[in-house]
Amino acid sequence: MMKKILCIVALVAISFTANAQDGDLRIGANIGFTTGNGNSSFVIGGDVDYLFDVDTKFEVGAATGLVVITTGNSIILPLAGAGRFHATNKIDLGLDMGYAIGINNASNGFYFRPIFEYKLDNKISLRASYSGVDSGGFLNAGVMFRL
């Protein structure tokens, strides 16, 4: 009985490992500024995307990261579903949608992020985006690295 359980656990672990290799892990960093409410604040962020090919033109997956708004030391952790459309060989259009968790001096809320990416090569992309959390938001630009 114990051998059967170990065999099943091993097969499940192998299948998860095989499926995990189908996706692309990307990490990046960005800088920007807040929009609205009159006073603009500097924003620094980090991004992590894990995307799977649906077909040659479309990817879906998950996105997260960390956003630090310097005024007030606000920190936001977005947790989102992600979609990317490969418009050309060099240009990707994307949208992240989910929930933002306010960690420090920030409120929780609906999160959305339209994205424009320009591929410098197969491993590096420049990214411009707007990130909105309920009534506030920020514009940012940065770079993404495919691992």
Q: How much β-strand is present in the residues?
A: over 45%
Order of helices and strands: HEEEEEEEE
**How much helix is in the residues?**
10-25%
Q: What average pLDDT do the residues reach?
A: 85
Protein structure class: mainly beta
Strand order of the largest sheet: 1-2-3-4-5-6-7-8
What coarse outline follows from CA principal-axis ratios?
Answer: globular
Classify the oligomer: single chain
Alpha carbon gap, first and last residue: 41 Å
- Number of strand elements: 8
Count of DSSP H/I helices: 1
Low-pLDDT parts are 1-20
The profile of the biggest β sheet is:
8 strands, antiparallel, barrel
Radius of gyration, rounded? 18 Å
Task: Describe the 3D structure.
With 147 residues, this protein is mainly beta. Helices cover 13% and strands 66% of the residues. It is built from 1 helix and 8 strands, in the order H-E-E-E-E-E-E-E-E. An 8-stranded antiparallel beta barrel has the order 1-2-3-4-5-6-7-8. A hairpin with a 6-residue loop joins strand 1 and strand 2 (42-55). The longest helix has 19 residues, at 2-20. Mean pLDDT is 85; it is low at 1-20.
Question: What's this entry about, in short?
Answer:
The chain is mainly β.
Please give the structural blueprint.
Blueprint: H1 2-20, E1 24-35, E2 42-55, E3 58-69, E4 74-86, E5 91-104, E6 109-119, E7 124-133, E8 136-146
Antiparallel strand pairs: 1-2, 1-8, 2-3, 3-4, 4-5, 5-6, 6-7, 7-8
